[in-house]
Amino acid sequence: MALILRFAERPSESIGRTATATGGTVKYGYARVSTEDQNSSLQLNALKEAHCDHIFEDRLSGTITKRPALTKCLKDLRAGDVLVVWKMDRLGRSLKNLIELLDELKSRGVRFQSLTEAIDTETPAGRAMWQMLGVLAEFERSLIVERTRAGLKAAKARGQKLGPKHKLNREQVTLARRLIGEGQSRAQVAELFKVGRVTLYRAMRG
Predict the structure, then answer these.
(1) Active site residue 40
(2) What 3-state DSSP class applies to 119?
(3) pTM for the structure as a whole
(4) Domain spans in the chain, listed from the N-terminal domain onward
(5) Res 15: pLDDT
(6) Residue 186: partners with Cβ closer than 8 Å, 6 or more residues away
(7) Chain-centre distance of CA 182, in angstroms?
(8) Are the CB atoms for 105 and 83 separated by under 8 Å?
(9) How far apart are CA 114 and CA 201, in angstroms?
(10) CB neighbours of 67 closer than 8 A, spacing ≥ 6?
(11) Cβ atoms 80, 25 nearer than 8 A
């Protein structure tokens, strides 16, 4: 029977690594729902049927970016282990974030499975899909940069000043929020607008 570790607004007691019937390899499942009223039973049942030894579950509101259950799960994974999700969008907040996580798993020798998309990084088809995701992530980054430059050029054409460096106007803040929502880091967005990260943080809080 799988052990389930749930995280809501506060972390619960952690579960230690235990031996399994497969020897040293441990199969970890990860589930996520964005609000407390959502039902995670579909995800949990699928992970149990996939014979996961431990299941980690985040039950957090959509405004919370930290995922303590996933953080704990990634920390417990060892080379040769398997991370299983019901669907790929449960793992990554964006395509860029998903690629970064899959790259990390690969570098650590951890196998990845997505049940809905039938992806397994141990199979040729799964590895091909992982490579295709990398191509799509690069395409997404190129589009974001292109849209950012076009937005800045349009703002300049309307007579809006893009400086001084210590201030962002309302339109720039709106664009910055959209870029971050599309997967850009705050450091990258601050660099695009030629302001410091602290200036960006303050502008977005306003």
Answers:
(1) no
(2) strand
(3) 0.58
(4) 3-122, 140-205
(5) 41
(6) 180, 197, 200, 201
(7) 11
(8) yes
(9) 35
(10) 7, 32, 58, 60
(11) yes
173 with 128: CB under 8 angstroms?
no
- Ranges of residues in the chain with a pLDDT under 70 are 1-23, 35-38, 61-65, 130-131, 134-141, 159-166, 206
How far is the C-alpha of 125 from the C-alpha of 127, rounded, in Å? Answer: 6
Q: Please name the amino acid found at residue 30.
A: Y
Angle at 184 between CA 147 and CA 193, to 5 degrees: 65
Closest by CA to 72, choosing from 61, 83, 62, is 83
- Please enumerate in sequence order all residues whose Cβ is within 8 A of that of 5, keeping only pairs 6 or more positions apart, or say none: 12, 14, 15, 54, 55, 56, 57, 69, 72
CATH fold of 3-122: Rossmann fold (3.40.50)
pLDDT value, residue 70: 92
Cα dihedral sign, 181-186-187-192: positive
pLDDT computed for residue 198 by the predictor: 83
Give the span between the Cα atoms of 85 and 75, in whole angstroms: 16
pLDDT for 79 equals 93
- Write down the catalytic residue from 12, 14, 34, 41: 34
